[in-house]
Structure formats: structure tokens, C-alpha cells
Design goal:
3 copies of one chain form a homotrimer. Chain A is α+β, with helices and mostly antiparallel strands. Chain A has one domain. In chain A, strands 1-2-3-12-4-5-7 form a 7-stranded antiparallel β-sheet. In chain A, strand 9 and strand 10 form a beta hairpin. The longest helix of chain A has 8 residues. Chain A is globular, with a radius of gyration of 21 Å. Chains A and B meet through helix 1 of A and strand 2 and strand 3 of B.
């Protein structure tokens, strides 16, 4: 028969098809009023589509390997189904310890690499806000709609394998990673631009999210959020730098990074605004 | 003294005794009405025995290393104390990415390797059911009673170290892993058999759970659930295949595996029933 | 004295800038009545300071890499903000499988290595107590106030990189790790001493927590809790032994360690009290 023929020809089946599971068919409204349920779902999108959950909040997800974990689902932006995959509030000061560097040995939010997604969403929320206030108090929210992640392996873990965030991978501008146009959910190009320092504003255009930007010293930054770099001083407007910073002088506690080069939150020279420095950045997949 | 004598003789103490902790003595009924409590327990069995929790649901467990995690406990089947150790709903289509392969680099549900157990239980539940409906809507539930896991290291992580699920580890039938008789909690041998395609039914006997089955191409599958293989077309009735599939042609999303070789859910030829294809498989330890 | 000598022999001061985030400014009382909130906080201390949570219980924390996990926060002892970083109830019997050994390949509670802390707290709670009874039923609770962790990398993961818990790292007493004076929250030096066997009591002084103690066979133990070793039989009063125990004879389940060398819980000879053997040890950072 057909199986025999194919197997004898050395053609065993090999399938990788995660985002669209043809075996999953919704069975009705199964949401539960009394607390979170352990759904068998790899992403917030699956919870929305298969279990009809439409409220923002914490949900249980299960990875391909059966790891159960909890994360925040944005069930409202642009149709909902956005999975929080990583977050941080100090990326501007973490050049030696990059929360987005896939070749590090750190532990990861399972969603960071387990989910196969098409688009990303980014939230800037003021520090020290509880979850229920994240959406209403966000100072910037935007998402992509180009399905660009499908081209780069389906998540940032895969994207950064293709565009490593480390020293000496290439030239500024020439070897930067992809830049993707964004759609604003809160704020616009002008507010995006205004978060950065006046000198930095001359070096980028708002309206994009950009990955792996290289500076004039050949060090790399992970994300330029809300902008596309047009210059080489990417330290002043990109975050999550990683790899080797050559000849970098060790800095003392209390010093600031390039985001605060001309004073903390002064919004002068290269210094970003206080609002941006005091915000956490949340990355979502969908 | 005695310690000196023994230590000087090179006999330092070395103990590994996890499942039965002689230091743990129940102190009374300590269950809490107001939400899950963080018990210091390595398994659902310990929660049942030491904390007198008898309801199915999510519980906190702590690993040997103090990792706190949550998983589902079946507190009713055959006396209760079954810990959900892994689950998946696409194992029939995951031959290159095996959720049970212990030599992969994936993250695991801590219970998969942390718990030392004696028996296993398996549930088939229709896709997209919330937790509260798992038990009542299961299409198949069975468990072992032979304490076989004790012979293979106490969990699947250890069992698969002894029986690696990879290419070219031996001959079909001759080098398959252990097959263990099962006791049915829902369904029976006939319903088990009926889930698989007519051609597949000629190649196995129901009433067992079998591990590491090898096909005629020397590729390996992780589990033959509910059956013992008597043939070489194990792709059609075993799941969680792993390792190298020689000369495999890449297939596109939307293709089916051997479980649906003669059409999706047709239950003809090698094709399994739609019920099986649209069910998630949950594995428990006790 | 010996403590000073050991501390002064340690590594030079290292600046770690995590515990005090200059970008984080409290914005008001944001605690939520309806269940735990996903705060963006690396430690219980941050939750206390930035989100004004003052109740003991389970809280969500997020690691530097955005991993969301839950752990127990002690929000009351000495001002509060203590993060449970690891726990275990069988350390006296785990010499081949050390829950504190940083060079193992086990998974860890993220707080164990993610948090940068200054001090430690230790609780002994009777086995099989639910979380709400931990504090009131503890048989011993103490904490440090010297900020010693700052000198050793900010957590035990870093401390044990500097003082590896393995065979043949040095001589007893001469090469033991640091010993830090403690302040009692429940119990005192006399009750500490009384937990150990009469022979063991001759070999230590209470009122300290000590790290990496070496025995006369050159094997190492991770922690001497509540005491500073003055002898070489550290197996009888230190826990979490790791590394290679030379020529160790395998023992059967049911055997006891040195803590019960002269009978289980007899409190005679080298045997510790039944209360200590039947208690779990919880380690906190602050």
C-alpha cells in the first residue's frame, strides 16, 4: 500500500506545523467562572480561539514538552490572542546581561521559544504598576501586522539565532537585522520620537520595530523599539545590548547608560525622557 | 566511636530513598479551603498521603531542588495520588520534535524527571476541554499496577535513558522496550483497538502500554498506548517518534502522519479514528 | 576571631546594582484585593517596597529574563521582603544529590540565582504543615544582618561558585567557607544546640550560619545551620553534602545518615532530635 511504498522509499513522515493545528476544533464555550483553568494550549491565541476566553489576565499555558506555566494574555488588542513572552524594566542599563540574547545560558520564559507566532506587540508601562493597570496606563503600545515572524522562525529565539546579538557580526546599518512597520494602539510616531533625546531623534525614523542594530564600535543591540535606525549611535535609542563591548570602562553603580548620557531623564542631548527610563517594556507574540 | 570507625573505613553515608520518606508522618487534616496551598511535596501522592487532599485539581509541588511548580493531580483513580507529568495533543504529528525524548534540549515539566514513581496512568481527552471536564469526557483511561517504573529508574526520563528513542538502536520487535499490562478505568480492549485503523489492528494486541517501538526503517517511537506491537509498521499505532528519520522528505503543513495515511479520521486502511486524532494524551505517575 | 578571619579571607567586595533600582519609584498603593497580581518584581523585597504588599504568602516574581514564577514571601520578619529561594525536607539524607550544589545540572528555583540579596533567613518547620502554619509552628527561625551576601555575589548560587561543595577542596576547618553571626526570630542558641546530638554539640558553637564545611575525609557539606563548626565530624551537624564521597558503600532505603547515627531521633550520641529530623528547612534571601 501507500505507507509501505513511501516507507520503503525512505520517506518517513516529518511534519512541523504548530501555529495552525488542523486537529483542534472548538467544542463550545467552556470558560470557567471560578479561577484559571489548566487548558492544553500553547499560546494565548489558542486559548482565545479554542476556549473562548476574551479577558486580559493570567492564563496557564503548556509547552510542547508539557511544561505548565502562567503568563499574561492580551485578549483585546487587534482581535486579541497576544502572549506575553518576556518583559523587563532595566534593559537600558543591561549591556552585559542581555535578556533577549538567545545564546546565553539563562532560563527563559517558555513562551519565548515555545510559541510559533507571526506578529509582535510591545507595551511600555510605567514602573511599579500592577497588572490590571498595565493596559490603561501604558505610555506606548503598538503591534506589527506583516506576519514577519513567520520568515524568521516564528519567535525571537529563532530570529536571534539568525541575527546574533554579539560583538563583531558586521557593520552598522549594513548588517542590521530586519525593521518592520508598526501600527499604533496607544501613541503615535510623534510620541515615539519624543521619548528619545534630541540628538538621538536625528538618527532614526519612528514607525518601525527593528532588530539587531550595530553601533560604530561593532557591538550589537537587540531591539530598537518603535524606530528604524539611520545612524551609528544605536546605544542611545536601542535596548538589550549584548555581547562584548570592547574597551568599555567598568561603570559604577549610579552611573547611567547612553539613554541618560546627558543626565538622567533630562531629555537633553542624548538623554531619553524620564517617562521612558521609568517604564517596563513588555513583548508579546501573536 | 562508631562514626569515626565507619568514616575512617571510607564508608560515608550515601542514601537515595525518595518515594518513601521515613521522616514524614502526617500531622492531621491540614487542607485549606481558601485556594491552593504551597505544600512541601514532591508528588500528588505525597499531597494525598501527608496533607489529606482528595480532590482532583491543580496543586503546587516542589522539586528536590526547591523549584515550585503547579500541575494537575488525579486524586481519585485507583486510590488517587497520580501526578500529571506531561501532556500533548499533537504527538501523532511530532516525529521530528519528540515531547518524550529525554536526550533533547527542551525544557521539561519538572515532574517528568523529579518524581520517583512506580506506576503510570494515561488519559485520552477530547481536544479543547477545560480541566474540570477532563475526567468525565475522557474517551480512554487506564493505569498499570505492576510497579514497573521501579525497575526502570522511577520515571520516563530514566526509562528513556535505558531505551533511547532514536534512529538505529536495534531491530523491530527484537529491540523494542518493555510492554506492561494495563487495567482499564474507562474503556476496554475493544474500544482501545477500535481507535486505530483496520490495517493497524492486525499488528498489535490491546491491553498493554509499550515503550520504544522500532519500525522497519529502524526509527523509534516513544509510546504505543494501550497496545503491544506485533509488527513493524509502528508509525501507525505508536506516538512520540524521535530521532533521525533517514531520507525523510520535508512535508508541508496540512499533511498528515501515518495515523491519517488513508485520509484524516476516515478509520480506513491505516487511518486512526477521528476521536483519537482529536484527543490530547495525558501521562501520570504514581 | 575566626569569623572575621574567614570573612576577610573571602573575595573582595563586589558591586551589584540590582537590589536598588534607581529607575523604580513607588507610585502609590496599588495592591489588589482579588487574588495575586503579576508584578514586575525580581524579589519579595521589590514587591514590598514598590507595591506595598505586607502580607506573607505566595507572590509572582519575574526574573531578569522575564520568567514568571511564584514563591513564598515573608513580609513580616525584621521589616519583611524575604524571598523563599529553596526548601527541602530530606537534606540530611541527600549526600549524593545536593539541593544546594550549584555545579549540578538540576533545575533551580529561579530565585536561587536570579535575586541579588544581602542577607539570609532560615526557617525550620515541622514536616507536612501547610503554608499558613509555617511561621506559627516553626521550631527555629533566624536571620543574618551583616549583608554578607553582597561579598559573595549576592546569592548562594554565586557563593557556592566561590566555595564549591565537592570532594577534596581542602582541609577541615582550614578551608571551610564563611560563618556569619545570626539574630534569632524564634528560638535561641540553647534551642539551636539542643537540636543536635550530645556528641555533635561538643564540636560546634551556636549563633552562626556556616557555609561549605569539610569533614576529615575531605568531603564537603553545604550549610551548617545555626552553628559554626569547631570539629571535623561535620556530617553530624551540617546538611546538603555534595560531591564525591570516596569509597562510600551504597546504603539501602531505611538507613539513616549521621544525623541519626545512634538511632533515629534518639537524641543520644551523634543522633539529632526527632524535631529536627522531621522538619523542613526553608532558605530566604533579602
Amino acid at each position: 500500500n501507500q505507507v509501505n511504498a513511501v516507507i520503503e522509499a525512505g520517506l518517513g513522515p516529518q511534519i512541523a506545523c504548530f501555529a495552525h493545528d488542523q486537529f483542534s476544533i472548538p467544542k463550545g464555550n467552556l470558560s470557567e467562572p471560578d479561577g484559571p483553568s489548566l487548558y492544553i494550549a500553547r499560546s494565548c491565541q489558542e486559548i482565545r480561539v479554542h476556549y473562548f476566553e476574551f479577558e486580559d489576565g493570567l492564563y496557564y499555558l503548556t509547552t510542547e514538552n508539557g511544561v505548565v506555566y502562567q503568563t499574561f494574555c492580551d485578549m483585546t488588542t487587534n482581535g486579541g490572542g497576544w502572549t506575553l513572552c518576556t518583559l523587563g524594566d532595566r534593559w537600558t542599563s543591561q549591556q552585559g546581561s542581555n535578556p533577549l540574547r538567545p545564546d546565553g545560558d539563562g532560563n527563559w520564559n517558555p513562551g519565548y521559544y515555545d510559541i510559533k507566532a507571526q506578529d509582535m506587540s510591545v507595551w511600555y508601562i510605567p514602573n511599579n504598576k500592577p497588572m490590571k493597570d498595565w493596559n490603561p496606563t501604558a505610555i506606548l503600545r503598538y503591534h506589527t501586522e506583516t506576519h514577519f515572524l513567520s520568515q524568521y522562525g516564528g519567535n525571537l529565539y529563532e530570529l536571534y539565532h539568525r541575527y546574533p546579538v554579539k560583538y563583531n557580526v558586521g557593520e552598522p546599518l549594513t548588517n542590521n537585522g530586519p525593521s518592520i512597520p508598526i501600527v499604533y494602539d496607544h501613541g503615535d510616531k510623534e510620541t515615539t520620537k519624543a521619548f528619545y533625546g534630541p540628538y538621538a531623534q536625528r538618527e532614526f525614523e519612528p514607525g518601525f520595530i527593528s532588530f539587531r542594530a550595530i553601533n560604530l564600535e561593532r557591538a550589537a543591540m537587540a531591539i530598537c523599539s518603535g524606530i528604524i535606525p539611520k545612524g551609528r549611535q544605536v546605544d542611545a535609542y536601542c535596548i538589550g545590548g549584548g555581547g562584548h563591548f570592547p574597551e568599555a570602562a567598568p561603570k559604577q553603580c549610579g552611573d547611567f547608560t547612553s539613554f541618560a548620557w546627558n543626565g538622567y531623564g533630562t531629555h537633553k542631548g542624548w538623554s531619553a525622557s524620564k517617562d521612558m527610563l521609568e517604564a517596563a517594556v513588555l513583548l508579546f507574540y501573536c
